[in-house]
Amino acid sequence: MSNAAAPENPVVLFCCAVWPEPESSAAGVRARFVIDSILRLRPTWRLIVHSGALPNAAMEKLRTEQGLECESIPANDPRFDAWVGGLKPDIVIFERFYTEEQFGWRVREQVPSAVTVLDTSDLHFLRGFRQEGLRVAAPADVLGQPAGEDITRSFHRELASILRCERVWVVSHFEAKLLEGLPDFPAGRVALSRWGVEPLQVAPPFSERRHFVTIGNFRHPPNRDSVVRLKRDIWPEIRRLAPGLELHVYGAYPASRDMEIHAPREGFFMKGPWAGEVRDLLSRYRVLLAPLRFGAGIKGKILDAWSAGTPVVASDIGAEGMTEGAFPGVALEAGAEAAEWAEKSLALHESESQFNGIASAARLVLAREFDPSCLAPQLLAELEGLRPPGARPGLPRHWLSELLHSEERHSARALSKFIEMKRRVIP
Question: Rounded to two decimals, what is the model's pTM?
């Protein structure tokens, strides 16, 4: 079997779940970091971005501002076969496991020499188990207890996708250790791959800030749940102790029901989407609140707050995986009482010394673990180190991966062909 190195100027296909919107979500920021790193550091590589989503303004932005080749072909569309076969990518990066489910088998049929990478964004099964645990009012074990049939099936699907790919990128040390600790998980499959964050050069001081803030895409269930919790439990307790303070809630894609909880008389302001620079926005406030009860991965709102010099009060779920060391902020148990949230949040809001200490510690974490000038070259070195499947002495094909490839070729292909046929019969 050949041990030839990857091509000097490879063709890289980035299959996105949706067209990246860095102004709307952490996943969008992550996707754009991957794209921008390749364009900036390896301009001779050919990079193509594909999504099964319909063309939109975000896709057009990639084309006009970045000069990228972009292709929109939905799942279960046989046109993808001829397109990817003609493209002959050397490396294919799938953003999120369900994108790999939809298009991975087609890539492997048409271009069996392509190296496949799964960019997880976060581990969906971890978030799902935690959400299910809340639903049934019991702790959720990440290996399936308790969990409904749908959640367990989602875990199996994501793990199968992870095992089918030659490389798996995760964004937190916690998730890397979780995967590597699974029974019989193949060694050397997982790589930590974060995105870079540039802090404000000069952030407004404590004396020029006031009030609380939270932010997050409302299509992401953990974000909406945290806002509901703030409105129902935590914010009334803060207002009881400090009637003059306000909470401003920002986020993309709020539904009408979300905006209906706007309550100025209670100091609770639903601001909706923010179109400007998020660091400038967050730098107006003294404290960002992140009472996430479930979730996974790196929390974009916390990184944004750190980059703005804004201290964070977060749940342990929010703080999880953000740094290898101590969390630079106030971390409370996800199920902590509203009174404790109010006490800790107000203490930080009123203490200039605590504010300055946390802001300085967070800036050190950004410099140590989220420096773009370090992370972008690391990402490119990771891609350059990939080899065609089976050609890496350090990364042999795991027997379970072979089994899953075989299963995928039959089940995923059969389901997709059925959907294709159904579309022709019932347009």
Answer: 0.88
